[in-house]
Amino acid sequence: MTESWLPTARRSFAVVSALLVLMPAAGHAVGAKVIERLPTSVVPLNYDLRLTPDAEHLTFSGEVQIDVQVATAVSAVLLNAKGLMFDEATIDGGAKAVVTLDGKLERASLGFAGGVSPGAHVLNIRYHGAIARSTLGFFAMDYQSAAGERRTLATNFEPASERLLMPSWDEPSFKATFRVTVDAPADRMAVSNMPVESETPLPNGLKRVRFMPTPKMSTYLLFLAVGDFERITDTIDGVQVGVVVAHGDADRGRYALEQATRLMHYYNEYFGVHYPLPKLDLVAAPGQIEGGSMENWGAIFYSQKHILFDSKNSTDDDRRLVFLVVSHEMSHQWFGDLVTMSWWDNLWLNEGFARWMQTKAADDLNPEWETGLRASSIVEQGMRADAKPSTHPVEQPVASAAEAELAFDEITYDKGASVIGMLESYVGADRFREGVRAYMHEHAFGNTVSADLWRALQAAAGKNVLGIADDFTRRAGLPLVSVEAVPAQSGSASGGSGAGGMAGAGRVQLTQSRFLEAHRNGIADSASPPWRLPLAVKSLTGDSVATTLLAVESAAVAFDGPAPAVVNTGHKGYARVRYTPSLFSDLSAHLATASPVDQVGVLQDAWALGQSEYAPITNVIQLIDALPPDANPIVWLRAVRILQAIDHLYDGLPTQAAFHDWARVRLAPVGARVGWDAAPGQAPNATELRMPLLIALARFGDRAASEEGAKRYAAIQSDPASQPPEARRAAREIVARQADAEAFNRLVAQLRSTRDPLEKQDIFEALTDVADQALAARLLEMIIGPDAPAGSMPDLLLSVAEEHPDLAWKFGVAHVDVPGFPMDRSTRMTVMPLLCAPSADLRRVPELKAYAAQHLPAAAGRSVESAVAQIKLNAHVRRVQLAQIDAWLKRSSTGDRTPHEGS
Questions:
Q1: Are 197 and 283 part of one and the same domain?
Q2: Is 612 a domain residue?
Q3: Residue 728 counted as domain residue
Q4: Which segments of 237-303 are extended strands (E)?
Q5: How distant, in Å, are the alpha carbons of 315, 677, 727 from that of 723?
């Protein structure tokens, strides 16, 4: 988070360096780290904030009255502040404070000559600051509307940017109530957490808007926005639900409103606690904000693509995205806002649960989407991160605001969601919900740690939830379960509940170790104490499922029905599964009979195991080859993503053409079934596969797909409605990827002519796939210029890096530290390493390390380590394992697909 404060801003306070001796009392040690937390000798009870923004000059002035309770006498009051210029601070309307700022700790010390006695007191602070351009803190977002250029002012605080707006106790455990008053243009709308209490006309075309007091809540959930808005509403369960959008966008907010009202009732029922605020607004940003969207209590702030749905131009995938993000952020209104983690080391309590809950809600309210099947990608993302040397426990120690900013990662979100899903499956959906309801009732309006949730679930379930949760949240690492066949007459099932005594027709031996992405030929380096791992096993052709809690290093499990068996059937256990060569061959031969979720699970494991050399990398090719054309579209979607990932590693190699030939032939029958247009009898999820599949076919050289894409793109230039949204989007992306300078210029002209920020973002995203390096370099210059929608630059830059990592990396290094570059400090800590992570060029490793040492804080170390590990893995697969695929493809062309490598 880097702010460029105006040079005219000045501080009108005395700085007394002697007061710095008070700072060590603000933290406490955990191990070798000092946790940078404020002391609890003074706590806030209520904030009354009065704000006057100057949108034209990007400055603001503020005055805050803070009711505090002092437990023990202090000589100074310590609170958070960053980039704020203090004009005056007093206590109880009398004594003035001597203000000392600590920029490193982002704190202000208010020293009082006579000290502050125990009891209730009132602080009054007048200050001023700057309105930022990045999308953290208090910032401006500019956009073009039908009525001309517009500027929206808004806030976005999580984890610790509320201190950019006002001096406060900016930590989640310091809950308080808030009253907000803002002076805004009379023709603009102001939105905050609570309904408007009063509006008073002011001179010079202004009005004073005062909002009702909030419930007790954490500072990072405070919200304020002022803009050219309109609001549409509905009422459900006594709560007014609104969608706030840029003027003229009301129709594009109606789908989100419909789903939000459904979700409000659903969550009221699920959590067993009624939503406690009188209203909930879903506010659309005119662009993209840091973090995607933010769960401010009563006023959720969404990036535009997460909430706007255009019935004429948006795809079914857009529809699902809006639902999932709306449901994710709305679940936070209970899990995070009503009940909040005590400190950022338990951030996963918020984010892991909400990531899981978005799928739960979608499966319950829109079962035809099969969201749970597609959510296997969430599990996969968590596993990928957990197998790297940069992994960390789900419950990770967080010492500072900078470390908190980096806690929003795949482990927190995706492994956290996977653990929640595994536990719900283990204890049963009804018992799980019973435990969640008890947790909500007990801790409403308070702060918790993970163990509070586990105790509630364990009490409801009557099972050892705490033990399993400890293994998967307090330890880092990903289990690997190796599977061997056991003759039915030997051994006995052991080591797990539900396995012993089962008179099954088959038996498998399960052995636990730790899966490491950097594994090379052998598993001696990956030994690990066993996890208490819930697993399900079933015959591929049977119906009975054997469940076990695998709590030892190795155990036999019996199952009903003939071989082959699927281990981790249903894909609920958080583990990789590795079969012996003979078991894998049998499974591959019968893959068509497996359930879609098992097909996806086996595919994902084979790809990861192959990259890390636990098994032949050709196993994943063999599985895709065995997948029937009429398999579930989401299974094929996963297969397409894997083929694209392999293709990236082939870039520039002479054998890439042979891989393209095979992939094109393999996908052609699937493409024929899905087609460019919906047809009677198609699977409901065909629309989800259509666009990625057609784009992949064109990528792999399918002439018909490329020609049809160009033809349909030409048709939509004169009549956009002539093509359905999925075909329209696919055609544009195909043309963009294959663009020459002339086609690229046409797309840029369209981008610059539209006044619709959503359409502008769609065109930009299509252009990030451009294959031509010179055109990609042109696009990079555009991304950091005025054409890019507000806040979208970091994601667009990363999208270019997916296709051109080395180009994007060099561009980023050359531009990121130039003054005015539109990327804040916290975003740089993650984006810069991610730019080169898709590369397979080992020269990026020393370059990244050198850049990080000079330009990134120590807190970014994990991001750097993760990117380095990914580059090394990519380089190894490209250098060594693609030759195995080449050999398999050659044998395949002669009809010999017998495995030639051992596992």
A1: no
A2: no
A3: no
A4: 239-246, 279-284, 293-294, 299-302
A5: 12, 9, 6
Return the pLDDT at 495.
Answer: 44
pLDDT at residue 655 in the model: 97
| Rounded CA separation 752/748 (Å) | 6
Residue finishing a domain among 304, 338, 372: 338
Other Cβ atoms within 10 Å of 283 Cβ, number: 25
Is 329 in the active site? Answer: yes
| Residue that has been written with the tokens 């250098």 in this structure | 879
Q: Give CA 570 to chain center in angstroms.
A: 24
Q: Looking at the structure, tell me whether residues 497 and 576 fall in a common domain.
A: yes
pLDDT at position 519, please? Answer: 76
Beta-bridged to residue 854, according to DSSP, are: none
- The full 3-state SS of 452-485, as one line of letters, equals HHHHHHHHHHCCCHHHHHHHHHCCCCEEEEEEEE
Q: Are residues 484 and 466 in the same domain?
A: no
Q: Are residues 88 and 207 in the same domain?
A: yes
Which one of 191, 220, 249 terminates a domain?
220
- Active-site pick, 329, 370, 403, 708: 329
Cα dihedral across residues 498, 499, 502, 507: positive or negative: positive
SS3 content of the chain, % helix, strand, coil (to 5): 45, 25, 35
Q: What pLDDT was estimated at residue 57?
A: 97
CA distance 535 to 545: 10
Residue 398 belongs to domain spanning: 341-474
The confidence score (pLDDT) of residue 903 equals 40
What stretches in the chain show pLDDT beneath 50? 1-31, 490-503, 521-525, 899-903
Residue 107 contacts residue 80 (beta carbons within 8 Å): yes
140's enclosing H/E stretch is strand 137-145
Tokens 């706030």, residue located: 244
Please tell me what DSSP assigns to residue 510.
E
The pLDDT value recorded for residue 166 is 98
Phi, psi of 761 (to 5 degrees): -65, -40
Q: Look at residue 467 in the predicted model and tell me its pLDDT.
A: 95
The answer on 128 and 83 residing in a single domain is yes
Amino acid, single-letter form, for residue 330: M
Cβ neighbours of 340 (radius 10 Å): 26
Q: Are residues 160 and 23 in the same domain?
A: yes
Whether the ω angle into residue 616 lies within 30 degrees of 0, i.e. cis, is no
Q: How far lies 709's CA from each of 125, 210, 676, 714, 759, in Å?
A: 61, 53, 9, 9, 19
Residues 467 and 490 in one domain: no
DSSP-based three-state secondary structure for 21? helix
- Write out pLDDT tens, residues 346-382: 999 999 999 999 999 999 999 999 999 999 999 999 9
What total number of domains does the chain contain?
4
DSSP letter string, 163-221: GGTS-B--STT--BEEEEEEEEETTSEEEESS-EEEEEEETTTEEEEEEPPP-SB-GGG
153 assigned to some structural domain: yes
Dist CA 869 CA 836 (whole Å)? 11
